[in-house]
Amino acid sequence: MFNSAVGAINNLLWGDGQLLIYILLFAGIWFSVRLKAIQLLKFRHMFSLLKTSSSTDKNSISSFQALCTGLSARVGTGNLAGVAVAISLGGSGAIFWMWVIAILGMATGFAESVLGQVYKVRDANGDFRGGPAYYIEQGLASRWLAVCFAFCLFLGYGFTFSAMQTNTITDALNYAFEIPTLYSGIVITLLAGSIILGGFKAIARFAERVVPVMGILFVLAAVTITLLNLGKVPEMIEDILLSAFGLQEAGAGAMGAAIKNGIQRGLYSNEAGAGSVPHAAGCASPIPNHPVTQGYIQMLGVFFDTIVLCSCTAVIILLADIDITGEMEGIRLTQSAMTAHMAAGGIYFVAAAICLFAFTSVVANYAYAESNLHLFKLDNKFGRTVYTGLYLSMMIWGASATLKQVWDLADIALGLMTVVNVIAIIQLTPTILAVTKDYNMQRAEGKDPVFNAEHVKVQGHTELGIWRQKQK
After folding, report:
1. Taking the model in full, what pTM does it have?
2. 224-268: per-residue pLDDT in tens?
3. pLDDT per position as a tens digit, 163-196
4. Greatest CA span in the chain, whole angstroms?
5. pLDDT, tens digit, for every residue of 424-435?
6. What separation in angstroms does the CA of 314 have from each of 95, 136, 244, 324, 348?
7. Which residues have C-beta within 8 Å of that of residue 255, sequence separation ≥ 6?
8. Residue spans of beta strands (DSSP E) within 32-76
9. pLDDT value at position 469?
10. Are 339 and 168 in contact (CB under 8 A)?
11. Rounded to whole angstroms, what are the CA distances from 316 to 83, 108, 243, 244?
12. Residues β-bridged to residue 61
């Protein structure tokens, strides 16, 4: 009965109903138009903000730490296993649609991250907290919708996603080194526990150190493989484009499969519109001191995750001389592809990469859900202890669960989160536009933008004291 219910909801969200595909495309196009193609026209400015992104005060995390925390959640199984799932079920054309949803998603990611900053609050320890539940409750004055989102978030990032990340790590280690999944699952759980007990700041520091290194190494590996197979690249690009529109031989139904799997796995990878990254965005103290700064920084995260890192995995798989059966395959397809390029060393390289990628996601996922404990007045020792125990228990379960069980639960949680979040950010569009206009006007006057909530029309109510204090 449980499997039937999960299957029915996923079919509505991702399958025959394709509700999520329409919602995400609408949101991406909506914000791309309303923000005047900000992801394209402000592309250089987005990168320029990295120069000051490491600055912050002692009570906050920096914009760069927030970016790395967001990337550590994004850069995980979606990049290595998720891309493999998309290609195995949707063909090479799924990669094209993954790019499309990423470009549109950059605008959506900007919008939700700006809101995460505008409506952030301080918890009992003086730390910033932000995210969809906060801007839904304050901006839309809808407590029930905020609770609904928080519930979906706990189901996804609080429990299911940690199981899925652990499942992928243990499967990769079992395939490469024949380590029993339960044993590696216990070790991973203990290591994750040692980090997450330090709280959001400890997680941000961990992400800041690990994410740039692992990303650079993976990109270098993909670039090297591309150069060694340069003659195959034009054929690969042609195959991606033809497959994307079902134009290759025996292409009946291929376009639909490519669109569905490309968008589904693209969303899972970059999380634009899902409402996860605003939690990291809301915890940052950006320099310049304006919410739009963090919007640009997190928009950059979508670009790095999907356009850069997912493309690297796609190149590794599509340039490999291996058979793609059409059956659902995850991390082992990526390992097989890397083995074709690097012989026996390939399987170990991917195992090491997925351990780092997925492990950073595990600790960041914990932080996202933990941020919402404040919403329920459970950001105390008892609340955190219960939540941490349940979170780590799900990691143990995920170590031995089947691939389909874990991915189905992850899909339903992500889908429900996205529906609630997109409904909210569309309604909060006037605030997003007003705050962005304020930022652009100050830049046009040659100023370093500083946000003053009293001078910008913000929907609902926000803790203006935070921003008034910053002006002093």
Report:
1. 0.83
2. 989 988 889 998 888 888 888 876 655 445 667 777 777 777 776
3. 877 887 888 788 778 888 888 888 888 888 888 7
4. 66
5. 999 999 999 999
6. 7, 36, 14, 13, 18
7. 93, 244, 245, 246
8. none
9. 47
10. no
11. 11, 28, 18, 18
12. 284
